[in-house]
Write a structure and sequence with these properties.
single chain; 638 residues; alpha+beta; 3 domains; 16% strand; elongated
């Protein structure tokens, strides 16, 4: 078996790092560090520049506490000062990753090329890029980032948990801190609907509280703090199976720590985890009755008090995932999967529901209606397309061609997730079969198909009217360029495994159907008014139809630009009147381009408000929690 076939997954948490190597035949192995499956993420920067990792760093902290960094995973903009010198946190995290890579190479026998890094779901692009840089600095190949709750969900499905398409689950990750996420299983995989994190609601806070209790109520001094925290952490793990343990103190004495003292220290912390769970469920805009399960993972998830807190405060019944500290990393590595190409749940080709089908069909049919009218209502001068005379020319509505191209592209984009799943079924590449990969590939395929259809309109029109192709290509392709650019930006975001937007990717890719219908009706009426035979008794009605078409097209633009009804009413009046006033052969192209720009602005707004800066649909308290999650590094990895 070639070493390149192995898969290495790493969960580099704030407190500890776990790693799993898996092979295509289903075998997998947790990497061991100093005889344990969890490598402490702490490091100690020696005076000679060498970096000690794991337990070596904790042991050396007793004699050199000034150079000890318990949680080197920092925000990208933060710098560390160690013993008076500035240190790049990237180098410290890279030291831990380098040790993991070395152990993986020793186990496999060669460098592992397929590397996956588990990251918190609440991380944005800067932190994800920062983690990629750390992996690169550690000498690892380009990693694929997998969100922790998505990895856990994949592990649950691989373990036989029945989670049908459309079901909702909560993943409560309690490691050094806490991150709670609500996920929905869609046809293309799991997507994160909401995630909130609190770094002060996890194992680190419990350890600090216990250390203060054992130090007679006062925080230990710097020289004794790290050895005491190390002893407390080991004792806390031992209490999962015992009633009481002896904790050695740095000054040489020892005290007995029992489950009662542990629960006393852990109660406020785990109660905060339960509150965070309630807030996350509310942020996802679902009820507890909608949940298929609540699953607890992370190093601190084994505490019995967590189940009690979730049951009493959040009104949910949690399930402790077996070996909770490694659930995410096993899911990321597809541990136990018999086929390396089978990443997570099986790929399904979704059948669009009625609303999705309508969202795809409406712009498609509207595009066909416009291009049909475009061909039938052309006015020939100095001959016909069959028998051309001298100075043969055709009076065409370029705006109608542009609108048909725009709507064809929108129809393809609305089917983006379906196209992505169809491609993923036949793709052996893991990145394509991931949730973000499906969406990204689907959008890019939709863009390619939409541009191809627009180009086809231009080519067919040029051949049909027997005119040079340049003008047709300009009006078919240039107006859709802003939409193409925005769609590619969304594809890049999806490919980088960012959070799924609220409501899912299909909702984000669908332009308001009302805007499409209104704008299409407006352009059809405008073209009718420009080309209809003006009998004296019908001339007034034909003019009215043209002005009405301008009004409708202006309203369609407003419906694409803004969503609140009040804003639509305010903007619709002036824009609709202006559009109605300028209806003419020359202005039809301007109106179509205006609509294309409005759709591009709509895409930009969706990208910003749904993904880059999503508005939290919760009370102010939940918004404050989300802000804390952004300002402080989440501790999803434990």
């Amino acid at each position: 078996m070639r070493a390149g076939e192995a898969r290495l997954a790493i969960d580099c948490g704030s407190a500890s790092t776990t790693a799993v190597v898996a092979w295509p035949d289903g075998r997998w192995l947790s990497l061991m560090f100093d005889g344990e499956p969890a490598l402490p993420s702490a490091v100690l920067l020696g005076g000679d520049g060498n970096v000690l990792t794991g337990h070596q760093a904790w042991h050396a902290a007793a004699t050199d506490p000034q150079r000890f960094i318990p949680a080197p995973r920092q925000s990208p903009e933060q710098r560390l000062t160690v013993a008076g010198s500035d240190v790049d946190p990237l180098d410290l995290v890279a030291a831990t990753l380098r040790r993991v890579a070395g152990e993986a190479q020793r186990v496999v026998g060669s460098v592992v090329e397929d590397v996956r890094l588990v990251v918190p779901a609440g991380w944005g692009p800067r932190r994800r890029t920062w983690m990629r840089h750390a992996a690169h600095r550690a000498g690892l190949p380009q990693p694929r980032l997998i969100e922790a709750p998505v990895a856990v969900a994949g592990h649950l499905v691989a373990a036989g948990v029945q989670l049908p398409v459309g079901s909702f689950i909560v993943v409560c990750d309690v490691g050094a801190g806490a991150e709670v996420s609500v996920l929905r299983r869609g046809p293309a995989g799991f997507e994160v609907l909401a995630t909130l994190a609190d770094p002060s609601a996890g194992g680190n806070a419990i350890d600090e509280a216990l250390a203060t209790m054992l130090a007679n109520g006062s925080p230990p001094d710097e020289g004794q703090r790290w050895p005491l925290l190390a002893s407390v952490g080991a004792a806390k793990q031992a209490l999962a199976d015992r009633v009481a343990v002896t904790v050695p103190l740095p000054q040489g004495s020892a005290v007995v720590l029992n489950t009662g003292l542990l629960e006393q220290a852990a109660h406020p912390v785990l109660h905060r985890v339960a509150q965070l769970t309630t807030e996350t469920i509310a942020a996802a805009e679902i009820n507890t009755t909608d949940l298929a399960g609540v699953y607890c993972v992370g190093g601190a998830a084994r505490m019995p008090l967590l189940e009690k807190a979730l049951t009493e405060t959040a009104s949910v019944t949690p399930t402790l995932v077996p070996d909770p500290a490694t659930a995410a990393v096993r899911g990321a590595a597809d541990a136990g999967a018999a086929d390396a190409a089978a990443v997570g749940p099986p790929v399904e080709v979704p059948v669009p529901p009625v609303r999705r089908a309508v969202a795809i069909a409406v712009p498609g049919l509207a595009s066909l209606a416009l291009i049909w009218q475009y061909f039938l209502t052309a006015e020939y001068n100095n001959g016909s397309r069959i028998l051309r005379g001298y100075h043969y020319w055709v009076l065409l509505n370029w705006g109608e061609l542009a609108m048909a191209a725009v709507l064809a592209l929108l129809a393809c984009l609305a089917a983006g997730t379906v196209l992505g799943s169809l491609i993923a079924v036949h793709s052996p590449t893991p990145d394509v079969r991931s949730e973000g990969g499906k969406v990204s590939v689907g959008i890019l395929a939709a863009v390619s198909l939409g541009v191809a259809v627009a180009g086809l309109y231009a080519v067919v029109a040029s051949q049909y009217f027997r005119l040079p192709m340049g003008g047709f290509l300009r009006w078919a392709l240039w107006p859709i360029t802003p939409i193409v650019l925005m769609a590619v930006a969304v594809a890049v975001v999806a490919a980088r495994q960012w959070r799924a937007p609220h409501g899912g990717w299909p909702a984000l890719l669908t332009v308001p159907t009302g805007s499409v219908i209104t704008a299409t009706a407006g352009m059809l009426l405008i073209q009718y008014s420009l080309t209809a035979t003006r009998w004296p008794h019908l001339e007034l009605w034909i003019d009215i139809a043209g002005r009405l078409g301008g009004l409708l097209l202006g309203v369609g633009v407003v419906m694409a630009l803004v969503t609140p009804l009040a804003f639509r009413l305010i903007l619709a009046t002036p824009l609709a009147l202006i559009a109605a006033a300028i209806v003419s052969w020359q202005a039809s192209g301007v109106l179509a381009v205006f609509y294309a720009i409005a759709v591009a602005v709509w895409w930009a707004a969706r990208l910003w408000t749904r993904i880059v800066r999503p508005a939290t649909p919760t009370p102010s308290q939940q918004a404050q929690v989300a802000m804390r999650a952004v300002d402080s590094p989440p501790h999803g990895g434990g």
